[in-house]
Structures are given as structure tokens and as C-alpha cells.
User: What shape does this take?
Amino acid sequence: MALINITLGDAEIGDISDIVNTDCYPINNYGDVTLNELIEYARKELAEDGCCVLKKFLKPEALEKAVEESRALSEKTFFSKRMVNTYFTEDDTSLPQNDPRRIFMERTSGFVTRDMIAPDTIIHRIYVSPMMKRFIAACLQEEVIYEYADPFAGLVINVIPEYAQQPWHFDTNEFIVSMMTQKPEQGGVFEYSPMIRTHDSENLNGVLDVVGNKDHSSVKKLELNPGDLQIFKGRFSVHRVTKVGGETERHTAIFAYSEQPNIIGRAERTRQLYGRLSEAHLISEANKIRRDALID
Assistant: This one.
């Protein structure tokens, strides 16, 4: 497999008040009463549910441009199909059959990676903006958050075509920020079981209930629309996107931030999702230190 050397240009543009619906979300006016109330609302939602959705985050003209850009970029999507479990681990036959790690589901992954997304696109401007990072950090009650150092995974467009789905899984980072730019005609519903595991407990029985379709009483469904911003604690909440129907693909921009600097994705998962590695992934893998003791 070919290695790719990438040096990302500095796309910091700072002020994104021409993009964001600042009448509802005045992230350009830190200290504003409305913004403080919004941050408190987000913190409450994240504490109780592990998820917060901010409807119509973009101005209409910015959303229109983001939709056009994502459609054009979708032509560069790398697709892969494989059977995976919730943790992206290999099958361990020493485990009992009723262990969630033994349940494998079909996953069709489609991604456009950051190195293919121009710095002047709407989603790239959002991702690198200090204004945006300060707002997200405040919602998460973090002093500061960082962009991924990963040349592929920091900013991606997730593309899900007809008949494809993302089965139950956990994210590798504690939280994810995303924004739908194109909604499918049918399906493509975001479902999640809030905070089903913790740093100290895998709660395998609870995960089995969800993944094994035994008990979905904890599962919530989100009706997301283009321009909605979602902050989600995907490291602890098992989640999926249901099968898409119709010719219209589901497009979602995913903004990956971290509480720590210099985060680069694991080589094997990068290879699975994006079909290639950069030199940065190999160097990082050789010095990889796990952030927690969870399975994935």
C-alpha cells in the first residue's frame, strides 16, 4: 500500500460570522447573554444525554453553498464494505457467542478525507475557526480543544448511498461534532443509546441488549436536517445510522476535535476507513499510547 506525504496548509480564517446563523448562535460575541444561555443548554443536554443538536446552525446561503460543495466532493469518496463488530476488533472465538464482540454487522463506509477538502470550503472554514473551537470547548466544559493532527480524519465528509448503513459502533474519540449537508429520501436515521458505557465499565450486557436487538428501550432516534450541528459523546454512546433508501445520498461533515493535541488515528482503522495511510500514521502507530482501557 502506497504511503502519502501530506503537509496541510494553514486555513485558519477565524471569523465565520458570515457562515453561522449568529442571530441564534452568536459565537462571534463571546460573553453575549444569549451565547451564555446556549452554552449552558448544551452542557445540560450533554450531561443528561451525551448529545446536543443545534438546529439551523448555518445561514441559508452558507448551507446552500455547503450542500453544493459536499455534492461535488462526494465524487472523491472512498468506499469500503466489510463485516465489523461494535468495537472494530477481530472475532475472538474464545469469547462466548452472546458477547457483543461476537456480533458482526455489514458496514459500508464512504469518506472524503481532509486532504481532499479545500481550505476555503464552508466546512473547512468552520473546522479550523478559533471561534468555533472556543464555542465547542465551552459546550464540553473544556478549557481548550484541538484539531486532529491526522491528515485524513480531522475533517471528513461521510457519504452513505442507497442500501448502505453504519451499524452499531463506538467512536475512538470522546466526542464528535457533525453537520448533515444532505438528507436521504428514506432512512439514514441516527440512533443511539446514551452513555451506555463509562471509562470504568464496558457494560457488555447493556451493549448486547442494543447490538443483539434484545432490548432497544434505551435507544433514541434523531431527526437531523441539513444545517443542524450535532455535538455527541460517541465514545460512550453506542450508535448507528440506519439503512439509506432512495437515490439521494446521506452527506455529513464530521469535525474531529480532541482534548489533547497531536492526535492521529490508529493505522489499522485508518486503512479500513480510508484505504490508505500517510507517513504520519506509521510514525504515530510506533509511538501510540492508549488514552483509556476501553476495548476499542
